[in-house]
Amino acid sequence: MIDVRAFEAGDAVTVASWVDGAEALTTWSGNAGFSWPFDPDQLVAFHAADPDRHTLVATEADGTPVGQISLKPDARRWSARLGMVLVSPQARGRGYGAAMFQAALRVAFEEMKVHRVDLGVYTHNASAIRLYERLGFQREGVQREVTLVNGEWWSSLTMSLLAHEWTHG
Ligand SMILES: CC(C)(COP(=O)(O)OP(=O)(O)OC[C@H]1O[C@@H](n2cnc3c(N)ncnc32)[C@H](O)[C@@H]1OP(=O)(O)O)[C@@H](O)C(=O)NCCC(=O)NCCS
To answer: Measuring CA to CA, which residue among 104, 16, 9 is closest to residue 56?
Structure first.
């Protein structure tokens, strides 16, 4: 099982070490504005500039960090945007992503009490889209060609889950 706790500045070094290239950086952070080579200071500055963002770190039972996810509610708390979804490369494919999502959805629906959670995922990120569909997210539409990576435009699929659709894991 995993636990989740609030992100601390000291986690930035660990999280940055999970990003192993420019494409991986964009796949994870989208248009957040990070640049390659990525360094922990960019992540610390990003969080410091955005106090409304609620970032969670998923840990194994012994406290080892294995993932990160963040929630940003809108001003009315009707909706929250899920983002910065990352599981350490060594820990992928073991259900941590799904468990981390359920923990974040619990915060969104039970603590923030939002009505909907949405996210953007690049259309070629099939494994992530499968995970989100397993969790009940529905496809809303595609933002076409929003991100330029090595001369190629990437499109982003918007997906959402409403409070009454959430199955609580
Ligand atoms: C997307 C991401 C967060 C998923 O995390 P994860 O921990 O690998 O997710 P899960 O383990 O819950 O599911 C991934 C796969 O493992 C499989 N799996 C889950 N638990 C498993 C288990 N106990 N044994 C074997 N396989 C398992 C799932 O069926 C799934 O398979 P699929 O991809 O063929 O559908 C992770 O791949 C990641 O960090 N990717 C890079 C960054 C990224 O793409 N972020 C999303 C941006 S929107």
So the answer is: 104
